[in-house]
Design goal:
The chain has one domain: Response regulator (Rossmann fold), CATH 3.40.50.2300. Helix content is 37%, strand content 24%. The protein is built from 4 helices and 7 strands. The longest helix has 13 residues. It is globular, with a radius of gyration of 12 Å. The two termini are 13 Å apart.
Length: 115
Amino acid sequence: MANVLLVEDEPLISAITEEWLNELGHVVVGPASDLASALRLAETPIDGAIVDISLGRQSGYPLADVLTARGVPFLFATGYGQEGIEPAWRGRPTLSKPFEFETFRRAVEVMLDRR
């Protein structure tokens, strides 16, 4: 069981992701739908995070900076593929939307193994 920060601004995707994390036995921190809330929640004890890159008019990159500095593993979630990720962040573990449960499960397991 791990505490996983969920940062997603689409309510349906957030609800599904939260349900899947619960099914996998993890505790969901959040979810946060904006950068300010995500940054506050990142101050709490977390073991990993799923970070939507596009949060309305904001981006998840400042949160990625914080998580990286703290050594917290995370996955980006995006509907834009690797091309839609800023070059400095390409190659990071990414869930491409829409994602299915098995892909999600494997990605979360790999992320949490990096702790």
